[in-house]
Amino acid sequence: MKKQTIKEILQDYKKVLHHDITVYGWVRTFRANRFIALNDGSTINNLQIVVDFENFDEEIINKISTASSLKIVGEVVESQGAGQDVEILAKKITILGDNFTEERDKTILQPKKHTLETLREQAHLRFRTNLFGAVFRVRHAVSFAVHAFFNQNQFFYINTPVITGADAEGAGEMFGVTNFDLNNIPRDEQGDIDFSQDFFGKKTNLTVSGQLEGETAAMGLGRIYTFGPTFRAENSNTTRHLAEFWMIEPEVAFNNLEDNIDLAEDFLKYVIQYVLDNCKDDLDFLDKRFAEEQKTKAEKERAKEGLIEKLQNVVAKRFKRVSYTEAIEILLNSKENKKGKFQYPVEKWGTDLQSEHERYLVEKHFESPVVLFDYPKEIKAFYMKLNDDNKTVAAMDVLFPGIGEIIGGSEREARLDVLKQKMADMHVDEHELWWYLDTRKFGSVPHAGFGLGLERLVLFVTGMTNIRDVIPFPRTPKNAEF
């Protein structure tokens, strides 16, 4: 008989009621030498084990403590106490792993005994807490829903390179990849590093995006998406930045900007609804935590709705679609801008919007998710389609409450001559991207796509406030532990 998880037992306990079963897990609490709260990570809910200590060796009882791992054989019975439907009357207890820590160190795994900052320093133990168990089960559900959505809509999953010679963003904030002995780097006659002698024979980096390679696949497969790690060497120690994170990037042949916006809205609503449908216990826990956290904030800074209510509203409401030009007018005329309350004042058309501007539009002005489109060409990437006004590009950003930008995308520039001119204007090397230009020579078609940072979405769905708390092992400046 296969091992059952605690989640399975609690969901279908009537099938095993009054039968002996075997369960495995870690001790969350052990009260009065009689009640063990056992958890195996499959659910936020614990399974209560009732121990008649007179039937067990005292040495075994003394070894049971928070974080001990146990194998327990016992009878499933209806619970006499409040808080659970069933419990197990223990008949045999095997200690699989003792907790060898000193008493003062055991608090790291006990609720209300630790801060999030402390747990970031103990990231290998975060999974053992209720909070991070919930967060990472939700992260799994989000990831699964991503694949399910695209599979149902006939997209093909493509793996794009982690090591690349292309800079998709043109920002230059990339981690270099080399096989050189750093104490003996070869140089050419001009004294520059001679990358021709390196492993790949050229300068290479960790990717910031799989988009450009994804476009090549879409030109033959029609609908594709990538889902993989990306890297930014940006020296930002903020609650919103990571050096290593996961990106989802669909690319669709024959789609225009409006199609792209429709896809983004459908996609986000599908994933959030999946989490609402399949993570109820974890969301209930996170919702209560979110509410408690709001009480600690000044009244004007508190969220207007609870976590679950916020998610339900995003699914229910049609996203407001607003041109960049209209958004600038709204911001220019806002009380916040006129009274100097924005950290970055909005002074004119062409301003690159900051998170505070995006959140104002979503949370104060429209009170719904917003899609901004048709941005000034100067503040967007070379590959975005130039509009007929020659001033804007067919770009789109999806803005969410509490987050700001959660998706960025565009219709791509499919015209070879226009693309080459834009690359020249933005100093993007044609020779490095000869293969990308080739996709415009062999049956070029209108196409569009977007990028979504997985961690940004998990941050939104869980109600967490620091992006380092929604990835198992965060990589940030001066921090690459574990």
UniProtKB/TrEMBL annotation:
Coiled-coil parts of chain: 276-317
Q: Which PANTHER family match?
A: ASPARAGINE--TRNA LIGASE, MITOCHONDRIAL-RELATED, ASPARTYL/LYSYL-TRNA SYNTHETASE
Q: Where in the cell is it found?
A: Cytoplasm
Query: Aminoacyl-transfer RNA synthetases class-II family profile domain location, by residue?
Result: 136-472
What's a BP term from Gene Ontology annotated to this protein? asparaginyl-tRNA aminoacylation
Specify the domain of life of the species encoding this protein.
Bacteria
User: Under which name does UniProt file this protein?
Assistant: Asparagine--tRNA ligase
Instruction: Provide the species name.
Output: Chryseobacterium wanjuense
Keyword match Repeat? no
Reaction(s) catalyzed by this protein? tRNA(Asn) + L-asparagine + ATP = L-asparaginyl-tRNA(Asn) + AMP + diphosphate + H(+)
Protein keywords: Aminoacyl-tRNA synthetase, ATP-binding, Coiled coil, Cytoplasm, Ligase, Nucleotide-binding, Protein biosynthesis
The family note in this entry says: Belongs to the class-II aminoacyl-tRNA synthetase family.
Provide the Gene Ontology terms for cellular component: cytoplasm
Pfam families from the entry? tRNA-synt_2, tRNA_anti-codon
- Gene Ontology molecular function, alphabetical: asparagine-tRNA ligase activity; ATP binding; nucleic acid binding
Q: Which gene encodes it?
A: asnS
Q: What is its EC number?
A: 6.1.1.22
Describe the protein's quaternary organization and the partners it interacts with. Homodimer.
